[in-house]
User: Fold this.
Amino acid sequence: MNKPKIKIEDLGYSEFFKTNYDKLKLSESSVARVIAEHKGAYRIKNENGEYLGKVTGKKMFDALCREDYPAVGDWVVVTELNEDQAVILQTLPRKTILKRKYNNKNETQIIATNVDVVFIVESNGRDFSLNRFERYFAIAKDGGVKPVIVLNKIDLISEEELKLKSKEIKERFEGVDFIPVSTVSKEGLDDLKNYIEKGKTYCFLGSSGVGKSSLINELLKQDIIKTETVSSYHDRGKHATTSRQMYFLENGGIVIDNPGTREVGMADVSEGIDDLFDKITEWSKECKYVDCAHIHEPGCRILLALKEGELTEEQYSNYINLKKEADFFSLNKHEKREKNRQFGKFIKNAKKDLEKLN
Ligand code: GDP
Ligand code: ZN
Assistant:
């Protein structure tokens, strides 16, 4: 095979991951990035090539929670078995994580990990909604990912309308970068391209139909998404194909586009939430303090609504959870400590399992 040589940094590897990998001091192993997930197996890639990776010794992962299974974007520690296959020993700590929470449940699903910037895409169509951004913002913020607003299909609106919407967006989401674009008129596409940096990972979140594929295809300069599938693994004559889920742009940027990035926004960002935010936004204007957090402040209109039954406990806590300026850095620290504790156990088991493999 005469593949052009790539560097691991081109796949997004950075000091953060290297430090964590070095700490493990695992010999006979290497790191690779998960570029696609497929029926319990993972497509992984490093400077040596692409592999089908499997998590072996279920036990190794049993010690950890569900979220410790690899996800697209993860850096995993592997043992390369041959040119096509590798054994995944473990997932390196994540720099960032995008996950969706299911309403009323404690369950979460990882959308992607180690994403640097999330483009929250909304289009100018009948479903334009500022409230929907809140939900995506919460997802980004919870995971430590920088959000950027991309307003697509500006060819469908007049200049005045665009000015108005831009103003609305900038007022509501102060300090957040905002890129108006159109894949039809090509306006703003250079701004989007210029935003993308070499070795950084990006993800597009937004409801179906807002133009995520069109935008990614523009960045790729080819219509790849929705058409291309790659032959992933040959096993006893069986031939499986996997849709690509990670794309490498000419300028060195990396884009994750997987089912998770597409599902968010349909079930999660329901009309109900939109209405709720409208109501609460209105109410909050009547709070005594402009910077009211609606938690214990006197003269809070939202707490009054709660007391009066205009708002249910559940709606209130949903809202607070979404709005919470969660100190995710300290949260992560705590999580990290807990993980570290389990990590020791994990390494011991991993070594045992490796011995069995030999
Ligand atoms: P996705 O579901 O978010 O991936 O959206 P798609 O990229 O599949 O786009 C949905 C539809 O919007 C398609 O019919 C596109 O041709 C159309 N579309 C995408 N970008 C634009 C745009 O900038 N302007 C207009 N008018 N239509 C667009
Ligand atoms: Zn209040």
